[in-house]
């Protein structure tokens, strides 16, 4: 089991696109560090599991906090636990659903920026979200989440 604070949960929502190929919902991380980045600057909606929460409850709560609307009703399936190089574990669930993400209203976060400057700034945790193909998502996602795309592809291939 990961150390406290190192276990998150998230949702990799998918839908069938125009060519019936799957598309996934990913969010671009907000703030000045990520503002001009695209590669490895996107994430699935995810966050820390709070005491007393199941991983799925945490994933649903975090989706709402980061996207600004509840996740669609779906039969969510566990894709697996994915471990970052840092040792952080992200438990990822997937489900099929449709959602308009033209207006993302993520909860704000406050951080010191630049680091060690003493200056605090507030910005949305996710500044925009987008539906895209798995091939487009792969280079955009942070490295620790890329294996979840392969897990989703394997799940969809079995259907």
Describe the structure.
This protein is of the alpha+beta class and 159 residues long. It has a single domain (7-158), classed as Nucleoside Triphosphate Pyrophosphohydrolase, CATH 3.90.79. 21% of the residues lie in helices and 35% in strands. It is built from three helices and nine strands, in the order ββββαβββββαα. The strands form two sheets. Strands 1, 2, 3, 4, 5, 6 and 9 form a seven-stranded mixed β-sheet that branches. Strands 7-8 form a two-stranded antiparallel ribbon. The model has no long low-confidence stretch (mean pLDDT 93).
Give me the count of strands: 9
CATH class: Alpha Beta
Q: Classify the fold: give the CATH topology.
A: Nucleoside Triphosphate Pyrophosphohydrolase
Secondary-structure class = alpha+beta
CATH homologous superfamily annotation: Nucleoside Triphosphate Pyrophosphohydrolase
Strand residue percentage: 35-45%
Largest sheet: 7 strands, mixed
Shape: globular
Oligomer: single chain
CATH architecture: Alpha-Beta Complex
Work out the helix count: 3
Which spans of ≥5 residues are poorly predicted at pLDDT below 50?
A: none
Write down the secondary-structure element order.
EEEEHEEEEEHH
**Euclidean distance between termini CA atoms:** 31 Å
- How confident is the prediction overall: mean pLDDT? 93
Computed Rg? 15 Å
Could you say how many structural domains there are in total? Answer: 1
Helix content: 10-25%
